[in-house]
Amino acid sequence: MNLSNILNTLDTSSERHLDELCQWLKIPSVSSDSMHRSDVADAAKWVAEKLKKAGMATEILPTDGHPLVIAETPAVPGAPVALVYGHYDVQPAEPLADWISGAFEPTIRDGNLYARGATDDKGQVLTHIQSVCDWLATGEPLPLQIKFLIEGEEEVGSENLERLLPGLSDRLACDCVVISDSSQYAKDKPAITYGLRGIATYELEIRGPSQDLHSGSFGGAVMNPAIALCHLLSSIVDSKGRIQIEGYYDDVQELSAAERTAWSNLAHSDEAFAKEIGVDALFGEEGFTTNERRWGRPTFDINGLTSGHQGEGVKTIIPAFASAKISFRLVPNQDPKKLTKALQAHIDKHLPTGVKVTLSPDHGAAGMAADPQSRYAEAASRAIESAFGTPPVLIREGGSIPIVSRFQDVLQCDCLLLGWGLSDDKPHSPNEKFCVQDYHRGIKASAMLWAELGSLRKGV
Amino acid sequence: MNLSNILNTLDTSSERHLDELCQWLKIPSVSSDSMHRSDVADAAKWVAEKLKKAGMATEILPTDGHPLVIAETPAVPGAPVALVYGHYDVQPAEPLADWISGAFEPTIRDGNLYARGATDDKGQVLTHIQSVCDWLATGEPLPLQIKFLIEGEEEVGSENLERLLPGLSDRLACDCVVISDSSQYAKDKPAITYGLRGIATYELEIRGPSQDLHSGSFGGAVMNPAIALCHLLSSIVDSKGRIQIEGYYDDVQELSAAERTAWSNLAHSDEAFAKEIGVDALFGEEGFTTNERRWGRPTFDINGLTSGHQGEGVKTIIPAFASAKISFRLVPNQDPKKLTKALQAHIDKHLPTGVKVTLSPDHGAAGMAADPQSRYAEAASRAIESAFGTPPVLIREGGSIPIVSRFQDVLQCDCLLLGWGLSDDKPHSPNEKFCVQDYHRGIKASAMLWAELGSLRKGV
């Protein structure tokens, strides 16, 4: 394997790499919008074509929704198999007026490429595609088999992929999934994310009288559903942020002393963090730092409240109903199904009089924990250090990528989350961006990763 | 005074009475809608014309909004003065599709007249106008002076009348205000309402981060404004319906043993009441009956809740803000201004960390208590018994008519609330109605009332 030859090819191709990313970004593949159905299909075709031209066995696999793009390089006996997962669909670009340059007109300003999908996820997944395609173009054999699974419904919940995954388990069999759909810890501080929180979301509805009542004629004699909702929601979490559902903390994987020490050594300022989000003071569970609260502790949040009169002025009614959207972030080892039972039991126990309460679970996913000291993680660490000039920090993230724990379950594989983005990339907002330098460093790190992983023997 | 001659005139005029009410109801005098400005003016002209034609000194008094119609019969030395208050404006008729017959096409079905304003308040106030006009038409002198104050902004808060009232105090000077803008206790159970609750309304807003945050990346590390709102609202009232603001019950006028006994003798079924409003069980302050809770106890209600994601599906955010519309019904002797101070102190004491709380008072009005055994009330009772064939019951109502306590304060007068409506008249909803028989009985009771009040000597 002549790695310097490969790295040299990458260096001399950087203009084409950027040009190709721009081509892909120009396709408005908004998966949630049926008006963009053919654009989504075009984005799938674009990437399938790219993979196929490089010589990979490639298929566009239809689903009930948008298709999966699956490709693979030849098998390499004795070496591990890597599966690159990413997505070619993007979030809606609205509000369009807030974009400085067009959402689907990729534009470079101050070293950043601005476009919807630049960081989430076209730019990031393309780093791995470029590294593999260019490697193959040199004529050098890859030191391991690499498979690609690029889906078109990540932004709308990956339901079709989740359903099809068990049936694809042979075809996608791998030792390690590689995903670049997250962020570095900070500018020039690349990270390996070895944990994600799970999630459980619900809608809680409280119905009282059959219609809004006059609060003068009826007030005092009937339970107000909005008051019942506030009491019920307040019973779920105390004023110190501690969740009161029986058994909620029983399965929580406690933070190890080692990772608490490691995280405490990460550059972090509570003051700067509070300023960034626009609050005077932070708030969270006692006895934990901000990063511990975000990455390693379970939460309860109210995502929305709706009841009664919401317009201007006064309408003195007892609302017929009140509802809340609520969600929990779970840490590894907490089971969303178990939570649903415990939450229902909590509600039954705290049921107010004279109203009907309905809890509707929406979706749930377990958290993910990988071993940050695994040989795959260590290989990734070396690759990233080579490309970025600094070793990656080991972090967890507070968000959830439900498909990741499904990969672990179904494919029984390890998982590497290698984020090339930055926390201010605004992946779901106007003016989404991706740092051009990080795109190129990501491609280089990816190539180094194949070399590092290829040097490992399978199953050792 | 030849009362039988007058009653006879009323009897023979019933067709015209109904016809005139229909004329008035056809004018869509929706005070809140600027598109109906000239209709509102026409409704004022219609009633002014009616009063003037009967020989009364009548004026249409402009205000910054819709005009007041003021009229009076000649002074009668030694006799008390009665002031009839009512309003010619109506609520919007929307949703129009829900009306069986047109909102401004008065239609009789099953003995009821259906139209916007039928009961609230054109039909009810017209009973007093008809009785006085017909009395004057007989040539008999009225045994007391009667003044009319018919406004066009009751449905939008009576602000101009409130402002002008002190300057009109000489002109409107009276011993007793007569208002028919409420309901009988039940069908064929006329009532004298001797108490109303006051009101205080507020908007409560809690602001957290400067924009909605991703609940994965930030959840657990920042106060969720919607949770803070639920905690704060829950702190205002306990799960038994007891309000927790310090001193809230200090000024509450307790119910007398006599009125509790009287109310307990009123026909009432909790079961039927619950069924009517569509709940399985009633709820309220311990130790009080349903009517006591509605009429004689102060309350706290949430009228609306707004925060975060309210559309379909899931959006896992920490909302930037959460707000509530809240209101209190006050009993006589509670001061809305004092409540505002106590509520602000309560909020300051229960202030959550990391969010900003703003309390904005909207409007406040004291409750009203009249003496149900006053000579005016007893005169009204005799008049109603003559017209309805059954003596009225003595009740309070849970709603608030802010102008009533202003009349008491500014004019230093007694107050008679004589409701001819029924609780299912739907005054602010589609298919508003007024029982035709009650319209005619109301006119008769009104005439008898003038005879009864006229027999009292002023100030005795």
Task: Characterise the protein shown here.
Two copies of one chain form a homodimer. With 460 residues, the first copy, chain A, is an alpha+beta fold. Chain A has two domains: 3-196 and 367-454, Zn peptidases (Aminopeptidase, 3-Layer(aba) Sandwich), CATH 3.40.630; 198-252 and 298-364, Alpha-Beta Plaits, CATH 3.30.70. Helix content of chain A is 34%, strand content 22%. Chain A contains 14 helices and 18 strands. The first copy, chain A, has helices at 3-12, 14-25, 37-53, 122-137, 159-164, 215-218, 225-236, 257-264, 270-277, 290-295, 336-349, 375-388, 402-411, 436-454; strands at residues 57-61, 68-72, 81-87, 107-109, 112-114, 145-151, 176-179, 191-196, 198-207, 213-214, 299-308, 317-318, 321-330, 356-365, 368-369, 393-397, 414-419, 433-435. Chain A starts with a helix and ends in a 6-residue tail after the last helix. At the A-B interface, strand 10, helix 6, helix 7, helix 10 and strand 11 of A face strand 10, helix 6, helix 7, helix 10 and strand 11 of B.
